[in-house]
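Regression test attached.
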Amino acid sequence: MTLIFFIILAVVAIASAAGLLISRNSVYAALYLVLNFACVAVFYLLLGAPFIALAQVTVYAGAIMVLFLFVIMLLGADKLPRGQVLPWQRPVAIVLAGVLLAEAGFLLIQRLNLSTSLANPDASANTTANLQELAKMLFSQYLLPFEVTSVLLLVAMIGVIVLTKKEKGEA
Amino acid sequence: MEQTIPLTYYLLVSAILFVMGALGVLVRRNPLIIFMSIELMLNAANLAFVAFARSFGVLTGQIFVFFVMTVAAAEVAVGLALIVIIFRTRHNIDVDQMNSLKG
């Protein structure tokens, strides 16, 4: 039952990624990406990581994709005219991607014990303990990286303000 | 009888998603789509992190996913600001046309 659910979810995730790749309209691409993020969030739930799943939905599917859609609408870039296409670019890229996938698959088969199975998480019992443990680790062992990320976000915010402000002053 | 899902399946999905993101970066020329493909690759890596964290029974993988999300948010904010600026000056955001670093 879980396996069937997993396979359906995987197919939807990969199909939405393919939709991102081939859609002409940027808005459709963004919506496909939202679908993909939702699928990955359900994968996280299957793996017993409810906090990460919720962070995925709020941060990625919520904040980042809203930012993307906002910029797409702001630029009116939802339908760009097709420019000159380098004729060799697409086949070379596809061949390279195939090589990368083959390499990853080879490593998976060679290095990993194929019989390693992940037991399904005990949904009700595991969640709170998992979250408490995560919070403990985050605020003790990984406190310095956590603070550094806050500084990083502040620097990014100031950087964006400076970038856009300077342009406005020059114009 | 509950079935369990092998770790390999998760890693395979993660690898496929990563390769599709890489393909998007290589093939598409709209920088917005390229950014979305980068997000796809980061997500694939996150999925592998969480699968390994589940497999080894440690939470470090989930912590790393948290940090990756933060870095992705910062990267998207700065990148989109750059795209907006370039679009304002060039009125064109095809990456093949961006061949000069001078403003």
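Expected vs. actual: identical. The first helix of chain A runs from residue 2 to 22.
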